[in-house]
Amino acid sequence: MSIYTVAHSPDADDIFMFYAIKFGWVSSKELRFTNMALDIETLNEKALENFYDITAISFALYPKIRNEYALLRTAVSFGEGYGPKLIKKRGKKLKKNFKVGLSGRYTTNALFFRIAYPDARPVYMNFLDIEKAVLDGKVDAGVLIHESILDFDENLEVERELWDIWVDLAGDELPLPLGGMALRRSIPLNKAIEAEQMLTKAVAVAHRHKTLLSKMLLERNLVRIDDEQLQRYLDLYANEHSITMNELQYEALDKLFAIGFEHGYYDCPIRAQEYLIPTEYTTLRELH
After folding, report:
1. Superfamily for domain range 2-78+177-287
2. How far apart are alpha carbons 32 and 25 in whole angstroms?
3. CB 200 within 8 A of CB 26
4. pLDDT tens for residues 160-183?
């Protein structure tokens, strides 16, 4: 049996999508997964080191790791009219070179932010610390991600939605690409295909049994939010569109990668579907 490490973030959507495997609802005779929960920027940095077998990443990072990792079709998070929020103290007027708290250099929200606000001064920190940093005046503003977007201090207000920045950059209302999963290319292809199939089943099973799985996560204190917020958050980022990417999501990813290339963040433009695991291998092997 092959054992692979799946690294994911501790936010509710990643926990939700992986724990169908952890609870034994999805299994394989050939594969077993261990898991590691780390904040998204640590995962991005580890992916640059080719560290974990399978890892959650910010989509904006992917072109930088494309030679070492294949892009998975499953466990994806896109915004549909929503996403991270740029927040500040109520009534505060931001200067052109305002100091902003961002959740990491390689995150998708940081890419959009740097393009939209080239004169701002980023301060990178754990996303859980951003709200307090704004309240304490350590930064003038901050970009909230994950569960932080659901509920924040009443002394703060939204300066701008990153969804609006995305629409301005993309020129169309495509879904906002935020995060997904990548698998190390050194894994044998047949194992890689089975791993993706197993993860896809896990996301589908988790979605189908959302109420029961949510209850189990809450009872075990595996998420940082209460039941009402958990349901709201899962509706946003762990829904039916998280199971397998669709054509509109691929189009959105291609747009993201094109925007990044146009602004000098990538060495070449890429198309997402050219970097997926070639599942046709299984069919060809069966024919022979």
Report:
1. Periplasmic binding protein-like II (3.40.190.10)
2. 13
3. no
4. 999 999 999 998 889 999 999 999
